[in-house]
UniProtKB/TrEMBL annotation:
Keywords: Cell junction, Cell membrane, Membrane, Tight junction, Transmembrane, Transmembrane helix. Its main location: other. This is Claudin. One of its GO terms (cellular component) is plasma membrane.
């Protein structure tokens, strides 16, 4: 909505006729959020293929792990897009709040959607980092298992 306050204290609001009529920062943050959501959906599908419990690609374990890593990288990109959008909009709110030219009744404060965006961005970044840490190793560094020594048969006189 576009609101105008008059000197008498009345506020007149008008609904935006078009999304193209919005501020350029609002259009950019909306685009970043849509990109972040779409990349998040793609990351879910790609990383699901790379899970160990899935039957897809079960014959090639290395390729399965690489699918999880690629899903994690896409999650990180999605989280960065979401973080940039929410931080940019939060910065805009702070600048307009402390601007002396902004009327008092037209000042915004941080809302629940902004906090939800920051939480979603941090969870996407954390999940992507955890998935990206599952890089396949070329050689295993595990020691070869040694069997336990077999006990010697007792003669019955061990008491």
């Amino acid at each position: 909505m576009s609101c105008v306050s008059q000197s008498t204290g009345q506020i007149q609001c008008k609904v935006f006729d078009s999304l193209l009529n919005l501020n350029s920062t609002l259009q950019a943050t909306r685009a970043l959020m849509v990109i972040g959501i779409l990349l998040g959906l793609i990351a879910i599908f790609v990383s699901t293929i790379g899970m160990k419990c899935m039957k897809c690609l079960e014959d090639d374990e290395v390729q399965k792990m690489w699918m999880a890593v690629i899903g994690g990288i896409i999650f990180i990109i999605s989280g960065l897009a979401t973080l940039v959008a929410t931080a940019w909009y939060g910065n805009r709110i702070v600048q307009e709040f402390y601007d002396p030219m902004t009327p008092v009744n037209a000042r915004y404060e941080f809302g629940q959607a902004l906090f939800t965006g920051w939480a979603a961005a941090s969870l996407c970044l954390l999940g992507g980092a955890l998935l990206s840490c599952s890089c396949p190793r070329k050689t295993t560094s595990y020691p070869t298992p040694r069997p336990y020594p077999k006990p010697t048969p007792s003669s019955g006189k061990d008491y």
